[in-house]
Amino acid sequence: SSSVREAAEDAASALISLANPWSFPSLISPLIVKALKSNEWRVKSNALDRLAQCAESAPSQVSKLLPKLIPVISGQVFDTKAQVTKSAAAALLAICQTNLNQDVKPAIPAVVNAICKPAETNKAIEKLMGTTFVVTVDASTLSILCPVLSRALREKLAIHKRAACLVISNMSKLVGSPADVAPFGPLLVPELKKVASSVQFEEIRDEALKALNTLTKALGDMYTEEEEKKA
């Protein structure tokens, strides 16, 4: 009944508010991810709402887990149920805003919007073009940016591909460690190679090669052609 559902939601919310932030990685996060596999849309919607709540109560812990959380939540934004889609978009914005990179922070709403609405990809890239990367780019930051950058490299217009290449070049120069960027190599390297070899305009091919070179340096020994084949 609706009263039982409301009581369950209230109980879940109360548990999150009382929980120690350090319980998020080992206890709360796995439970939320498991709930998102439910066939019941109310369970998924409530789990997403609780994740948004965790972004406020345990921001540091949520931020560290963004590389694992973002792919899971991104899949929910295209759910057939409008309530799940709405909760997923809100949760995605909330968790991405736990990221501490001040350079990227102003662009996060546009990037999240692009994850939810692929047609908005170029607007997000335009926002990132105005970003000056100064602080170290960690795995949390990369997990927010790389899916949208990968999609931008597949855009039809060459000028949009060029913009993505420029952002990747600037971002890659500040990558903290090869281990941070390694999971995102398969998202970006093959697409950069395609742009470098197939785009009609030499200037844009050159930008793709520059981006590929900078990204390859950031990856160090953490990325091989075997990884590319897996992707």
Describe the model.
It is a single chain. The chain has about 230 residues and is mainly alpha-helical. It is about 75% helix and about 0% strand. The chain is built from 14 helices and no strands. The radius of gyration is 19 Å and the shape is elongated. The mean pLDDT is about 90.
Could you spell the SSE succession in H and E letters? HHHHHHHHHHHHHH
Sheet with the most strands?
none
The outline comes out as: elongated
Structural class: mainly alpha
- Poorly predicted runs: none
Helix content: over 70%
Distance between the termini: 45 Å
Calculate Rg over CA atoms.
19 Å
**Mean pLDDT score:** 92
DSSP strand tally: 0
Search tags:
231 residues, mainly alpha
Q: Gist?
A:
This protein has 14 helices and no strands. Helix content is 73%, strand content 0%. The relative contact order is 0.08.
